């Protein structure tokens, strides 16, 4: 996953969303890319930039019950963000360019339709990521999104659908208590969902969750 490329496009999408609501900066002649640099440089108080992936895990351990995977495994063979974005010169568009919103809408539609890896369907896997609550119940959650980098779906638009997992807690487990970042274990399926926080290319029935051990708390949970 080319995280830096995703951060750039997310920044452009954020700027477009703000413009559509009338929140355009007074210096509207600035290039979109220049504005993104400012957004990318701003840090959360805990030390993570929007778009940062998880740091290396502490206490990582293997398990015989689940295949441990990371986010690149969710992409089909040969698919990359770079290939998807070929021919779209977003950095050449200024904030007031009438073509900018149209092009960025096209990007959003492409991302929502990003293809999944069919080989993962019905596999029992374990994967770490950042948590995006869906039902507002952090102590007794029944569903949430898992994403590969900080701020996705909250401080920045959703990643491509093949980088979003819609996690649904197994009925036998009932509910789980969410942490900012977690390992989730269960059965993953190539089922697309359109949630209020973004489109996911995968659904995962969760058997078990474990907090991902960080040196700091990256968000106010």
Unreliable stretches (pLDDT < 50, length at least 5) are 14-46
The strand count comes to 8
Helix and strand pattern: HHEHHEEEEEEE
Major β-sheet profile: 5 strands, mixed, barrel
Counting structural domains, the number is 2
Q: How much strand content do the residues show?
A: 15-25%
- Structural class assignment: alpha+beta
Give the fraction of residues assigned to helices. Answer: 10-25%
| CATH domain class of the largest domain | Mainly Beta
Write down the overall geometry: globular
CATH superfamily of the largest domain: Protein of unknown function (DUF3299)
By CATH, the topology of the largest domain is: OB fold (Dihydrolipoamide Acetyltransferase, E2P)
Radius of gyration: 18 Å
Distance between the termini: 27 Å
Q: How many helical stretches?
A: 4
CATH architecture of the largest domain: Beta Barrel
For the biggest β-sheet, the strand order reads 2-3-4-8-5
Give a summary of the structure in a few sentences.
22% of the residues lie in helices and 22% in strands. With 221 residues, it is α+β, with helices and mostly antiparallel strands. It has a five-stranded mixed β-barrel.
